[in-house]
Write a structure and sequence with these properties.
Elements: E1 4-7, E2 13-15, E3 20-22, E4 27-29, H1 35-39, H2 42-49, E5 53-56, E6 61-62, H3 64-71, E7 131-138, E8 142-143, E9 149-155, E10 162-174, E11 181-187, E12 191-198, E13 202-216, E14 222-229, E15 234-245
Length: 247
């Protein structure tokens, strides 16, 4: 199993919290002694999320979610390894060429070679790492008020304590007569994850998305997406939350 960081840019890319540099348009095969610092690196996750770097397991470039799991040695369940292909049987003897005439006779077909033995079935893959996955959505249009309006709420099941990746996305619109639309996300009604003051005076919808790595205690947790306006009209649609355990 290899762990390779590939540079998608024409410039040297430093990874500060690992103390390494990836050469321009090149790659760095990590030494096993660097695996521990890789699993704890937040700089690598940011560089992968922005497509500055790519992560390769020695065979394929992995998407972000599976790259993070591979970095931390959490392997999703995969199909059993296909056994080696059996050897090809001996080629049959070529038939004699038919006698030339109106149509030559077709020679006798040679015997079919013996089929090679079927390879042994590979061992089953390890259990997948997408533990404690939770998801919520509110896709309809919700209009604003002078007070905070709850657009989306995710109430988790009882979670195991540890590190989780929390991600959000939504689309918002601020009427041209409006002064400001305030959008916030809170954890357990006490911890503010983000707060956005939108002052775009345009009737079009604008997308917004992001993610945070959170250290959550064991138990049930609540995530709320709330928003309010200063004047006139503003609205949110296609709001989603998702969270899963990463460490």
């Amino acid at each position: 199993m290899s762990k390779i960081l590939k540079n998608n840019t024409g410039a040297i890319v430093p990874v500060s919290d690992m103390g390494i540099q990836i050469p321009s348009n090149g790659q760095l095969i990590l030494d096993p002694n660097e695996y521990k610092s890789l699993s704890a690196s937040e700089d690598v996750i940011v560089l992968l999320a922005t497509d500055i770097l790519a992560y390769n397991d020695g065979t394929n470039d992995l998407p972000l979610t599976y790259a993070v799991d591979h970095m931390k040695d959490f392997f999703p369940q995969v199909a059993a390894i296909i056994g080696a292909t059996g050897s090809i049987g001996n080629q049959g003897i070529q038939g004699f060429q038919g006698i030339q005439g109106d149509q030559g006779l077709i020679g006798v077909q040679g015997p079919i070679g013996v089929q090679g033995p079927v390879g042994l079935t590979g061992p089953a893959g390890s259990a997948g790492a997408l533990e404690e996955y939770q998801y919520a959505e509110s896709l309809g249009l919700t209009s604003s008020s002078n007070n905070f309006v709850e657009k989306l709420k995710l109430t988790t099941s009882s979670l195991v304590g540890g590190f989780y990746r929390f991600a959000w996305s939504y689309e918002f619109e601020v009427n041209e007569n409006n002064r400001r639309l305030e959008i916030r996300c809170e954890l357990d009604d006490t911890i503010e994850i983000f707060n956005l003051d939108a002052e775009i005076r345009d009737d079009r919808f604008f997308p917004a998305a992001g993610f945070r790595r959170l250290n959550l205690s064991a138990g049930v947790h609540f995530f709320d997406l709330d928003f309010k306006r200063d004047n006139s009209h503003g609205s949110i649609r296609n709001a989603t939350f998702e969270i899963w355990k990463v460490g």
